[in-house]
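<instruction>
Derive structure tokens from the sequence
<data>
Labelled lines for chain and fold
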Amino acid sequence: MPSLFQRRLTLFYFLLIAAVMAAMGYILYMVIKRSGLDYTMDKFLLTMILAAVAVGVVALLMNIWIAAQISKPLDIITAGVDDMSQGNLQHRIHLLPSDELYHLARTINEMAEKLENNLIEISSVRNRLALVLDTTVNGIFTVSQYGRITYMNRQASKILGIGSEQLGQKHSEVLQNHTLVDMIDRVRVNNQPIRSEIKFHGMNDRLLEVNVVPLRAGLIGRGEGTLAIFNDITELKRLERVRKDFVGNISHELVTPVATITGYAANLLKSQNMDPETIRQNSAIIYDEAIRLQRLISRLMELSRIESGRMQLHKQNLDVSAVIEKSINLSRRDHEQPIRVEFHKPENALMAEFDEELIVQVLLNLLDNAIKFSPPDSPVVISVEDRPEEVKVMVTNQGEGIPPHEKDRIFERFYRIDKDRSRDIGGFGLGLSIVKHLVEHHNGKLGVESELGEGATFFFTLPRKPQDGEEPAQ
């Protein structure tokens, strides 16, 4: 279908030729009428008129063809630009080099190619940014200047307990945490960043550091809403608490014996006529406290060596039951009072790969812990469970049990449930921490099962290695 330009150009040429022909016919008619020429002249003039009409028709057709040749490239360029404007940037305009508009078409093609490449790059950057924002450990949440939710990544959705269907809604109607709503509203009004620590009960009472800042765009700083960033600091706070507890505990453990030693040594120095029995008693107290300090320092050095990774394992394929019996005998020798330990020994040997000396140390610590917190004359029970890929060793006492909120902390350094009783029976709170590191160095697992008033069972696992010809347990 001819374009509007082509139709107008054709109409213009047609009217121009028609006007010329009409003018020529009128002039010839006037000449004939006034001169009174004969028939021969009339025939000649008629022929001339017909020839002029024929020439006009030919000129009209030529002009239509010329108009079509001029407007066709414009139609192709127009159609191509329309297709590009609809998003098809891969469309290319194809014209011959002889066409008048060839250079224009080539420029448009180059522009479309550059625009397509830029959009691909922008889309790639946007996808990478979206991936980073959606997989980051921090929660990211934005609210528009009108108080509507505009974006939240996966972590923010998990923290706030809302989904993508809430996008576009008022933040004050969706968010359940009033502290967070208040922070966002204050930033929207004052345009000043705010930082606070908020406990989110929907995430198992996780403590999060929340930074809310105003969003600005353009050179003049036009407000675009607010941005909230959530950073989980629960573990940092726990480590800070552990550090404070460690400093407080180590200070107490060092100050008490040092003060005792200093006091009794001062008495010995000041007394001129002290009887030998008093001197002996004071000296014994000084000696006992010095031994206490020595044990504490030895335990700290042992724990430091284990945690630093300098410890070398000498693994062997050994019978777990034999090592348990050896540990029981050593424990009985170390305790002045008789102890009751019941070992439910399996009928068959259970072989596992471990360092015998270190696992003996693990068992001695667990036995010592169980004996200290067991009632008088109650037995400590040791049992072994055979598993397909590991051996599980369990040490059970009949004590008061462990409160549920204490279970996650009993393996920390210096942590003790009953601190006064632990000091009375000579504990430092380092034994279970040492056990934890030794078991983990063997790629095993350590845990505790306990109910208040029903005692506690500490267990650890060791990788199992079947004997030659033995089928793994099912």
Residues 421-426, 468-474 have pLDDT under 50 and may be disordered. The first strand starts at residue 139 and ends at 143. The chain has twelve helices and twelve strands.
